[in-house]
Design a protein that fits this description.
The chain is of the alpha/beta class and about 525 residues long. The chain has helices at about 65-75, 95-105, 120-130, 170-175, 185-200, 205-225, 240-255, 265, 270, 300-310, 315-330, 375-380, 410, 415, 435-445, 465-470, 515-520; strands at about 5, 55-60, 85, 135-140, 145-155, 160, 180-185, 235, 290-295, 340-345, 350-355, 360-365, 385-395, 400-405, 420-425, 430, 450-460, 475-485, 485-490, 505-510. Bound molecules: adenosine-5'-diphosphate (ADP) and ligand LLZGTKA7. Ligand LLZGTKA7 binds near residues 89, 111, 144, 164 and 216. Its EC number is 2.7.1.48.
Length: about 525
């Protein structure tokens, strides 16, 4: 059912409030990104990343409790999805058949620094720290082997790396913001290792002891324990709740520093980007926004008239939204590159034509309302992979939060993303906060700005589009109509400043708009 809106007068001096997220408590696995809570903007109003992810390294002997420390930190931060654990265990090297034979006979040294692919570990960590995606290897302790698949990671604000050699490599140490060493009694480490390796890693007690005496203990003395000198903090291997609490409090401050808020500036740019502040007033004249607007034929205006009307049934809304999205995608395809192609017709005549000249094309819909463009998109581009981004407004601040990213294969891998054309599908650009975030995500993945085509039903001329245009001038924006203004209001039931009775959230509403497009399409 569409939500109705009440008008709210906006106070320019109103300071943005801190988000008050509700955290889910989940027990994380190693290398896991939790996806139950959103990521606030990690970039500023100029579209640029404001800071790196914060990296904590946890080193110590095998069984000292590194994983335990890392997990306890994650848990005490509320198991939020942007705090991830990156285990060095994933980076054991690929083993040849001969090495595998030695490994199964306990004769391969996994405790030497050379056993770990340090350059790959450093490269993956550097990418994550710079807010880019990475694809880390997957290692099987039972098979002593790197598996064929990789694991895609993106969107971490805090990265906790852990491993026996976490502090060994100078290039890795350069990437850390906080270095922790877990100091534990050797007997306790051995006892824990026996228990764990028998239970979780398919070993016998005898083989664990054999490996321990041959490799683990000498390596601890020679390579692991000496790295404690690089640590900022030494944490005991047991009864360490107080130390973990202090580290968590420090990390929480880093987390808070990495959440930007500027949606209101986007929504009413003329109030913020004035000549007096040194920045120029964003131009909102249609011709200066460089929008690719569909020709306003009577047939197109007719479709919009049906879509805007509150009398239109859901069935008709879906039919005409699908028709409109087909027209928009057809129009958008002209901005992709084509080469000449000659064919012979069934009657034997040579005909000179064109063919689309791109390596990868995919779509990404910004859920939920971007889904309304998907059917038309798939109709026009055959067999096209379509991913999604779930961007929603924070319930109290209205700031966008990235809740989930399910991107197509050709965007997940950087070398493919760099040569992909990506169609972003979202029903409207109002404040432009969701558009900002989704474009930033694609750029983080290495998609070229001039290969992003944003397709939308409606753009609000007085909203964030002018800022979006200035910040990402090379993105092609295709729309069917441009509305003049937006007004701030409350979704029915909002309880907060200016509206103490209800529950809900503040929204900016397009005028005249089409209402809540996602609701009208799906409900
Ligand atoms: N502070 C602690 N208190 C109680 N048990 C712990 C503690 N730290 C680790 N353990 C237990 O010891 C075992 C090994 O810990 P783990 O964190 O996996 O070690 P590491 O990652 O250093 O090899 C696990 O079963 C874990 O539950
Ligand atoms: O195939 C393998 C790879 C590694 N190991 C042992 O694992 C530990 C490191 O893992 P922790 O979680 O830090 O204990 C290291 O001591 C290696 O000996 C292995 O047994 N097999």
């Amino acid at each position: 059912m569409p939500n109705s809106v009440r008008k709210h007068s906006f106070d320019e001096s109103e300071a943005p409030t801190e988000p008050s997220p509700q955290y889910l408590s989940l027990q994380p696995k190693k290398n896991t990104v939790l996806v139950s809570h959103g990521r606030p903007p990690w970039y500023g109003e100029d579209g640029k990343r404001t800071c790196d992810a914060y990296v904590v390294a946890v080193a110590g002997g095998s069984g000292s409790g590194k994983t335990h420390v890392a997990r306890q930190i994650v848990q005490s931060l509320g198991s939020i999805p942007t705090v991830i654990i990156l285990s060095q265990d994933s980076f054991y090297k690929y083993h040849t058949p001969e090495e595998l034979e030695l490994a199964h006979a306990n004769k391969l040294d996994f405790d030497h620094p050379d056993a770990i692919d340090m350059p790959l570990f450093a490269a993956c960590l550097a990418d994550l720290k710079a807010c880019k995606q990475t694809n880390i290897p997957v290692y099987s302790f039972v098979e002593h082997q790197r598996l064929p698949e990789t694991k895609y990671l993106y969107g971490a604000t805090i990265i906790i790396t852990e491993g026996i050699m976490a502090l060994h490599d100078p290039a890795l140490r350069e990437l850390y913001d906080l270095k922790v060493f877990v100091q534990c009694d050797s007997d306790l480490m051995l006892a824990r290792r026996i228990q764990r390796d028998v239970k979780e890693r398919g070993r016998s007690v005898e083989s664990v002891l054999d490996q321990y005496l041959r490799f683990v203990k000498p390596s601890y003395d020679n390579f692991v324990r000496p790295t404690a000198t690089y640590a900022d903090i030494i944490v005991p291997g047991s009864n360490n709740a107080v130390a973990i609490g202090l580290i968590s409090a420090h990390i929480r401050r880093q987390l808070d520093e990495r959440a930007n808020q500027f949606r209101k500036k986007l929504a009413i740019p003329h109030l913020y980007f004035s000549g007096g502040s040194g920045a120029s007033t964003p131009e909102s004249r249609l011709e200066d926004l460089d929008l690719k607007v569909l020709p306003q034929t009577p047939q197109l205006v007719g479709i919009y008239t049906i879509l805007r009307s509150k009398e239109t049934s859901r069935q008709d809304f879906v039919f005409f939204a699908d028709r409109l999205s087909t027209l928009l995608v057809e129009h958008a395809l002209q901005y992709l590159p084509y080469t000449d192609k000659t064919v012979t017709t069934p009657v034997g005549v040579v005909s000179h034509g064109k063919k689309l000249d791109v390596k990868n094309v995919c779509g990404v819909s910004v859920l939920r309302s971007g889904g309304a463009l998907e059917r038309g998109f798939r109709r026009v581009i055959n067999d096209v992979p379509v991913g999604s981004l779930l961007v929603q407004s924070d319930a109290t601040t209205g700031e966008p939060l990235l809740l989930h990213a399910m991107l197509p294969h050709c965007v997940r891998f950087r070398h493919l993303a760099e040569e992909s054309w990506v169609f972003l599908l979202d029903a409207q650009i109002g404040t432009a906060a969701a558009a900002f975030m989704s474009i930033r995500i694609l750029l983080d993945h290495g998609v070229r700005e001039d290969r992003i085509v944003f397709i939308t039903f409606l753009v609000a001329r007085g909203g964030g589009i002018s800022v979006l245009r200035r910040v990402f001038p090379q993105v092609t924006i295709v729309c069917g109509a441009v509305d003049d203004e937006m007004r701030e209001g409350w979704l029915e039931g909002y309880r907060g400043e200016g509206n103490p009775e209800g529950t809900g959230r503040p929204v900016w509403v397009m005028q005249p708009g089409m209402g809540q497009i996602g609701d009208r399409y799906y409900l």
